[in-house]
Amino acid sequence: MGQRPLSRTVTWAEVFDVDPAHALPNRTWWWWWFIFFFRNEANPARTKQMVLLWGTRNSRALVINNHAWRRRGEIRRTPASVDCDGMAAGWYYDGATMHDPLFVDDGPIHTERNGGGRLSLENGNAYTFDAAKTPNIVSVRRPGLDVELEVSPWTDYLSQVVPTGKKYLYHLGYRMHKVRGSRVRGTVRLGGGEDSVEGTAYFQKVRINSPTSPWYWGVFHAPDGSYLDYFLPHLGPPALRRSPAHDSRFDWGELRLSRSFQFYEAATGEMHKIKGVRVTKRYVEDLPIFRLAGERDGKSVDLEMTSYARAYWEIRQPLLGPLTNVLYYNEYPANVTAFEFRDGGRRVTLEDLGPVVGNCEHAWGIL
């Protein structure tokens, strides 16, 4: 297992490409998604959040939250564009109510890799990410929902396009491009109401070339531009779970494939990394409180993340007749409620960072 070398010259053209090389039948994913953290003046402790996602999979069919999708044709790739069948989906926590799903739709995906890049799914409705414009534009147009968001740089460090990934065996593994932090502002018109929104965003494009196993993941933003994330994919009994319920007799015995934590400290400009962290959880009123802790090479972290809402995708892939694989991809809007980072004799706490908001993911099952 080796870390994929990072390129220092990354363009948006890579982000909008769909490379089918070594794709696995019924296994390889490509998806792009934003998570937006919108300030909530009525209740600052409950940040509004929205996820917008576009994706396709090298499989004949999927069922996502009871919405059936069937792939028609192969990926059509030119030096400047990609066309394929895919899906778009989203959820929205408006500060009081979780709209989950906000929509699930399917149709032709088209990407362009010239002049900054563009991604769209249009089928009468339209779901678009246009990186050729400054600021970038993210929009949704469908009956009862109109989203128009402007995404612009936050800090030089956070707004870089960063490639990363991991190879497990031969061509099995994943590749990602992410933008850790951007500014966002715009409007969300939903069901006759209109909400002016402003805050920060995280973006990620990922290609998974392996069975999709369970994972823990989280991303958080602080007001000063500090950034936290972690990723703990794993195997074991959680892959056998087949229900959205938090209680499960298979919720144990996680065999971690990776255990990484990152903390970008804006005050010093340093990216701290700790390998070998561990995550535990407990549930209060059927919502998780995650605890992450670990130490390595003189650095340590102790982090508590308290969720206040839940959205999930139930993703089923037909096998034979009524038999399916299933993955429950859970996302939890959350606040950091305790934080201590030590680097030698130096200590950073939540008081130094201010209110830290973000999202925790916990997926189980396998696809």
Structure description:
With 367 residues, the chain is mainly β. The chain folds into two domains: 9-18 and 26-210, Beta Barrel (AttH-like fold), CATH 2.40.370.10; 211-367, AttH-like fold (Beta Barrel), CATH 2.40.370. The chain contains two helices and 27 strands. The strands form two sheets. Strands 4, 5, 16, 17, 18, 19, 20, 21, 22, 23, 24, 25, 26 and 27 form a 14-stranded antiparallel β-sheet that branches. Strands 2-3-7-8-9-10-11-12-14-15 form a ten-stranded antiparallel beta barrel. Strand 16 (215-221) and strand 17 (227-235) form a beta hairpin. The longest helix has 4 residues, at 12-15. It is globular, with a radius of gyration of 20 Å. It starts with a strand and ends with a strand.
Which terms summarize this structure?
mainly beta, 14-stranded antiparallel β-sheet, AttH-like fold, 367 residues, 2 helices, globular
